[in-house]
């Protein structure tokens, strides 16, 4: 019986020898064109590649690697800069996922307690507003992400066009991620509901595990949605949340990034700079 084949791109090259297939089928398998890339993945890759090209310079030695689904393309592009430049570098992860990426790529691994000054950190975002405030922590990594953002001389955000919004909370409606020490979660929730004006704040529950999500630091995550009024200038609510006893870090990063790169569906990249400028760059296919 002929074996069945998956057409997903991750399937390794099929060796026709010994499969017992008719001759005519073999060239077809060998020459099957790769599946087209999903447009959102393409947008993520565009943003990541352009950001690396512009901000990860040959002289950079200490590089922060953030979390999320756009960051693998950051590492991919850094690898394309070549072994020679990368062998002198150390890469600092924002959590388990980025540590795996660094290790699997064979890059040098370090930590922020060894390198409290980082040349450049590139990271994803859940949403970025027109003033470069952003929500982070959809992946529960925002504590380490904020430390690496603060440690970086240059902090750059990379995302697809869905994250590019006027005001936070437009598309990412689950709320502001808040990391809390486990025993304080109920009190923090009560304060969010009754004092800070987030009646729908909830403890983030795990999928495929009974109970709450536990961060890489052993803490719980609360997701607290706030209305538009709070999100117009999120610094105030960020500071108020951070003042609640038991809160470790808030997933609102207010004007910490120098620029945010958004990949667009038409193959262009929009770059939003901290000084308010917005650039629109059309990339050539060979560089994306
Ligand atoms: O803040 C983060 C994790 O804590 C991520 O950067 C953010 O959730 C974006 O992830 P993705 O690119 O997968 O949407």
UniProtKB/TrEMBL annotation:
Pfam families: Rib_5-P_isom_A. It catalyses: aldehydo-D-ribose 5-phosphate = D-ribulose 5-phosphate. GO terms for cellular component: cytoplasm. GO terms for biological process: D-ribose metabolic process; pentose-phosphate shunt, non-oxidative branch. Pathway: Carbohydrate degradation; pentose phosphate pathway; D-ribose 5-phosphate from D-ribulose 5-phosphate (non-oxidative stage): step 1/1. Its EC number is 5.3.1.6. It is an enzyme of class 5 (isomerase). The keyword Isomerase applies. It comes from the Eukaryota. Keywords: Isomerase. GO terms for molecular function: ribose-5-phosphate isomerase activity. InterPro entries: NagB/RpiA_transferase-like (IPR037171), Ribose5P_isomerase_type_A (IPR004788). SUPFAM superfamilies: D-ribose-5-phosphate isomerase (RpiA), lid domain, NagB/RpiA/CoA transferase-like. This is Ribose-5-phosphate isomerase. It comes from Psilocybe cf. subviscida.
């Amino acid at each position: 019986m002929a074996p069945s084949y998956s057409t997903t791109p991750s399937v390794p090259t099929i060796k026709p020898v010994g499969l017992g297939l008719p001759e005519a089928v073999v060239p077809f398998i060998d020459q099957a064109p790769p599946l087209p890339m999903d447009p959102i993945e393409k947008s993520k890759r565009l943003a990541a590649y352009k950001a690396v090209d512009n901000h990860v310079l040959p002289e950079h030695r200490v590089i922060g690697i953030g979390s999320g689904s756009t960051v693998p393309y950051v590492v991919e592009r850094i690898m394309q800069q070549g072994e020679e430049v990368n062998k002198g570098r150390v890469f600092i992860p924002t959590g388990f996922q980025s540590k795996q990426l660094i290790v699997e790529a064979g890059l040098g691994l370090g930590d922020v307690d060894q390198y409290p000054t980082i040349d450049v950190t590139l990271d994803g975002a859940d949403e970025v507003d027109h003033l470069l405030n952003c929500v982070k922590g959809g992946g529960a990594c925002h504590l380490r992400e904020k430390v690496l953002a603060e440690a970086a001389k240059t902090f750059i955000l990379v995302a697809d066009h869905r994250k590019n919004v006027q005001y936070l909370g437009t598309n990412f409606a689950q709320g502001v991620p808040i990391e809390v020490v486990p025993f304080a979660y109920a009190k923090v929730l009560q304060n969010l509901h009754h004092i800070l004006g987030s009646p729908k704040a909830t403890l983030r529950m795990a999928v495929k595990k009974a109970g709450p999500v536990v961060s890489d630091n052993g803490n719980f995550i609360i997701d607290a949605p706030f209305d538009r009024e709070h999100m117009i200038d999120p610094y105030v609510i960020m500071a108020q949340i951070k003042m609640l006893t038991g809160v470790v870090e808030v997933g609102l990063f207010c004007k910490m990034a120098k620029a945010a790169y958004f990949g667009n569906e038409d193959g262009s990249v929009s770059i939003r700079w901290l000084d308010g400028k917005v650039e629109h760059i059309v990339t050539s296919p060979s560089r994306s």
